[in-house]
Known about the structure:
Layout: E1 2-7, E2 10-17, E3 20-25, H1 31-50, H2 61-70, H3 77-91, H4 100-120
Antiparallel strand pairs: 1-2, 2-3
Helix pairs in contact: 2-4, 3-4
Amino acid sequence: MATLYKNRNIWYITVSNGNNRLTRSLRTKDKQVAKQLKPNAELELLSQLSGATQPSKNLSFDELVRYYLKADHNWSKRTKELNDYVFRSYQSGKPLPLNPTSRSIFVRTINACWNWGMKQGLITKAYKLEGDTKGESGTEY
């Protein structure tokens, strides 16, 4: 049986089976939303407790970026600096650049992080950005 409880204004669900217990944040402050999320979360936790499925990680984007930047990608120093800048700007809430080429660099970099997270099994869904990933070519004379 599952139990909902609130800790620091966030709703959690806990499920126990014998001496084993799993708890997961429902990532909401709204009780009604927590009640709606409860059935699916309960089934998932029970299947993990029974050994039917392995737990899947579902990191937030901020956590995913930390893992992504720490991983060995064999980047040059300049590429690492550019990626650090892109993620810092994006995570701080700044809008994407207006320049089409700069914007495409941001989109490609952010989407590469989501793709990497999926391949590593760190997330179950990628929230990739839509938009041009090629930018504009140089000026023609």
